[in-house]
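Technical annex, item 7. During the second reporting period the consortium partners agreed on a shared format for inverse folding records so that results from different sites could be compared directly. Each record opens with the tokenized structure and is followed by the designed sequence. A conforming record, contributed by the partner at site C, is shown below for reference.
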């Protein structure tokens, strides 16, 4: 459950959650319109299925649109789906990379601070610092 909370926080901080919710609202609206204008789509659930298939560009072909409005909606849903597929992971990865950079800078700052006051460190602190340097060297 903790991983979901972290994921939710990242999505919220990056604004991606708003983008995702707007996508779901758009799909719901598109499905409502399709259920009205398309003769082959009889329920909102069928229309949502069609919008899902169109947005993921799977295109099973079990439901087809025949009206001009249905085709325009399909193009918009497909374009929005492609945009979501490209944008959301990019934003999340970019956020995570920035987070790692900040964390690395903080770690380096703490390390440099300890080096600056090297003569004042206790034996335990010197031992910990030595172990961290050895760990760093082993990772390289």
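Designed sequence (site C submission):
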């Amino acid at each position: 459950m903790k991983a979901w909370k972290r994921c939710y926080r990242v999505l919220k901080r990056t604004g991606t959650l708003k983008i995702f919710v707007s996508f779901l609202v758009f799909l719901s609206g598109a499905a409502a319109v399709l259920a009205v204008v398309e003769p082959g789509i009889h329920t909102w659930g069928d229309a949502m299925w069609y919008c899902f298939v169109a947005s993921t560009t799977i295109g099973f072909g079990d439901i087809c649109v025949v009206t001009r409005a249905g085709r325009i909606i399909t193009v918009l849903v497909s374009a929005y789906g492609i945009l979501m597929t490209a944008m959301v992971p990019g934003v999340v990865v970019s956020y995570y990379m920035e987070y790692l950079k900040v964390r690395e800078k903080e770690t380096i700052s703490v390390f440099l601070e300890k080096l600056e006051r090297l003569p004042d460190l206790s034996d335990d602190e010197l031992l910990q610092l030595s172990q961290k340097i050895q760990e760093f060297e082993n990772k390289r």
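The domain at 13-139 is CATH 1.10.287.70 (Helix Hairpins). The mean pLDDT is 86. All partners now use this format for quarterly exchanges.
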